[in-house]
Description:
Layout: E1 2-9, E2 13-21, E3 27-36, H1 39-46, H2 51-70, E4 76-80, H3 90-101, E5 106-107, H4 110-122, E6 129-135, E7 140-146, E8 149-156, H5 160-167, H6 172-187, E9 201-205, H7 207-219, E10 231-232, H8 234-245, H9 249-253, H10 263-279, E11 285-288, H11 292-302, H12 313-324, H13 331-344, H14 346-349, H15 355-364, H16 377-386, H17 395-406, H18 415-419, H19 428-445, E12 454-462, E13 465-472, H20 477-483, H21 487-494, E14 497-500
Parallel strand pairs: 1-4, 4-5, 6-9, 9-11, 13-14
Antiparallel strand pairs: 1-2, 2-3, 6-7, 7-8, 10-11, 12-13
Helix pairs in contact: 2-3, 4-11, 5-10, 6-10, 7-8, 7-10, 13-15, 13-19, 15-17, 15-19, 16-17, 17-19, 19-20, 19-21
Amino acid sequence: xxxxxxxxxxxxxxxxxIYKYTANGFFTIxxxxxxxxxxxxxxxxxxxxxxxxxxxxxxxxxxxxxIVDAQKIDNYICYADPIIATARNQIAFLDEVYKTVSxxxxxxxxxxxxxxxxxxxxxxFAMTRGVIMKVGEYSIELIKFNRRVINSSVSLxxxxxxxxxQVENLPIGKRMDKVEEIVTKEIKKxxxxxxxDEESEFIGVGKVFEALGKLSRKSSHYxxxxxxxxxVTDDSxxxxxxxxxxxxxDKAKKLxxxxxxxxxLLAIGxxxxxxxxxxxxxxxxxxxxxxxxxxxxxxxxxxxxxEKPLLDILGYSLSSIxxxxxxxxxxxxxxxxxxxxxxxxxxxxxxxxxxxxVLRIAASLCMAGKxxxxxxxxxxxxxxxxxxxxxxxxxxxxxLAAFVAASQNIDDFSLNEWVRYKDLxxxxxxxxxxxxxxxxxxxxxxxxxxxxxxxxxxxxVLGDTVILKTEVERDASLEISQAMSCASDFKKVYGKNLxxx
Length: 501
């Protein structure tokens, strides 16, 4: 197992993130430390980073360097936000850092920032085309992409702070209205945003979108505390926007527990998003918690594999989870057998194609609860899967998969728990969950020795009996015996007797 250290000079923070990664391109965050240093505050005042701020930065980086050296990490990336390039003493600042801490920081250009944002989305969402928007304090990035290629992009030279400076004497509501006017004029100059088709998706990146997503989840009593890939609907956005628009400044400053951003800056950010809704957003948007840093790391580590990775985002995500937190010797074989059973039993379960993704997640993580402990691990599958950080699947698909993996013993299905997720699931899903749960349990039993003994399965339905004929390479008597223990649940769910030969 290798490690990569990423040192980041953000506009308000210095961040050290340590990743674990493997030679075949899987990676995960192992540790992250954030120290606040408001570099951008100095730059915005007179264009210079103060000597005291430089020393503060160096002091923090020295401590970060100690952590990295103690772990004997010799692979690292150092990069700085584009705002650093606007400092008049940026060269002297970065030279001093290099001489003192032996860390050479590359200041991302706006083009590199856009490329990193695009990569972050490609490596964490299953989509073919869309528009990416990041609302920062000093700039706004917009990217239109199709089939993994950037078609058009722009980095607008203003953000929430610079926009606030133009309207700070106005009440919150009028500030937001004025910002809409200012940003709309600039957006209308971008002809490529006028031709966004209905199938394109809109992805929001950054603290403004994350805060909006959190407010949306709170206002709608959303059952999951998952920020990434959360879908903000048109109605939800309108409700949150109107809430903020109607606050006076004192109340807005008391808006706690949403973000470490100032509430007045959030209001400006929401006004910018409102322009996006007015001009090119077609049907809500998805929140991404992965920004430039994720893109920089993904491009660096996945580029080492020498392939074109992540055409299958979900598959990569599930494999990565099992790589770093293994609970089954052969999770892939569990899924392979589950797929065979799913196809062979299709005449009985009659489930539609969308459930295949649910089956894939549940089969791959059907033993994830063992991270907590072996006893009752199938029940423990539920919270573990919800909090695995799965990419390439919607929140609904993740919830359904968690129920499937937790209900491998049919009597464990909890209707009380189900009611909590009523806004994401429906009553028809209950039958599907039970049918998939039986398939998953049978698949794990047919792979219980991890010897890959069962190669194929054929199904015959004879009256009230289902006969599964296994094709094996070696003795599979234990696998068949264990799979037959599912006969009782099979009868409850499918209404048929089960025989496995």
